[in-house]
Amino acid sequence: MNDALISTSALSKQFPVKSGPFGKNLHLQAVDSVDLRISTGETLGLAGESGCGKSTVGKLLMGLIPPSAGNISFRGRLLQEMSKKELAAFRRDVQMIFQDPFSSLNPRMRVGEIIGEPFAVHGVASGAQRQAQVLNLMTKVGLSEEHFYRYPHEFSGGQRQRIGIARALAISPRLLIADEPVSALDLSIQAQIINLLMELKREYKLSFLFITHDLSVIRHMSDRIAIMYLGKIVETGKRTDVLDRFLHPYTEALLSAIPQISPESPKRRIILQGDLPSPLTPPPGCNFHTRCPYAEQICRKVCPPLEEKEPAHLAACHFSEQLFR
């Protein structure tokens, strides 16, 4: 296995929340003791319901927000120990593709300026050289040269996301963090963007953190998968292990929600009871026990550790072996 390009250790993030002018201050636990690793050339899919903390993990790895606790290491160096020069290099090496192609582009900038902005920020190229590199990137992502002087409002959602991808690729990053990059697009356009990302991964030898709530998408993109629930990683392993031999009830429920094309092999649909608990007041014990159809008394009292149940396949469940083997 390749060495880790980026990794986290007990990574946590809390956000202070005021409960009113006379109420006490509360803390929203968005990310809770997360351990992740992405190797060089690997795609890690991070999946879970909306509000589980996926996007916060992406922002933490980008360095956009500081962690409340834990560490982030990039190529063996802790972010908090990096010098200004090392941090500048880190920001070149790690780029992000945002979820909403309609709000992530500056409406007052032309496409050529948007894609060329990273060159200006990092002082990589200028003048005719910058323009040539921008035009090359536009061609790579399926845009034509005539789009260079147009504004974002003149493009469709899929085209805007291609602009965002070109901007992220501008300074040759090692890692791309794709935060729900196709969720705002039509299904036919989703397939085009996914195929484009896979082609670019092969050509540029990129690593990916692919954040999504859609496991049918993550199956095509990922080498390994991590399933997140209420700020915690509840299962992680190789793609085929997690999707075909899952070890956590939450993963089972997510997979059961994927529409079936073939009527010959119907799946039992698992409807989770209740709402997602508030991260302001997470339940005691296992976070998932309030919605888990298999919960026992121990689940209400003891939080199960994320531990290796099979080689390179980890799950946080007291009853993985009994339920799924």
Question: Helices, strands, pairings?
Answer:
Elements: E1 4-18, E2 25-34, E3 37-39, E4 43-47, H1 54-62, E5 69-74, E6 77-78, H2 84-93, E7 94-97, H3 111-122, H4 127-140, H5 157-169, E8 175-179, H6 187-204, E9 207-212, H7 215-221, E10 224-229, E11 232-238, H8 239-244, H9 249-256, H10 297-301, E12 307-310, E13 313-315, H11 320-324
Parallel strand pairs: 4-9, 4-10, 7-8, 8-9
Antiparallel strand pairs: 1-2, 1-3, 1-5, 5-6, 10-11, 11-13, 12-13
Report on the architecture of this protein.
The protein has 325 residues and is an alpha/beta fold. Helix content is 33%, strand content 23%. It contains 11 helices and 13 strands. The chain has helices at 54-62, 84-93, 111-122, 127-140, 157-169, 187-204, 215-221, 239-244, 249-256, 297-301, 320-324; strands at 4-18, 25-34, 37-39, 43-47, 69-74, 77-78, 94-97, 175-179, 207-212, 224-229, 232-238, 307-310, 313-315. The strands form 2 sheets. The chain has an 8-stranded mixed beta sheet with strand order 7-8-9-4-10-11-13-12, sandwiched between helices. A hairpin with a 2-residue loop joins strand 12 and strand 13 (313-315). Helix 3 packs across helix 4 (127-140). The chain is globular. The two termini are 27 Å apart. 39% of the residues are buried. The mean pLDDT is 91.
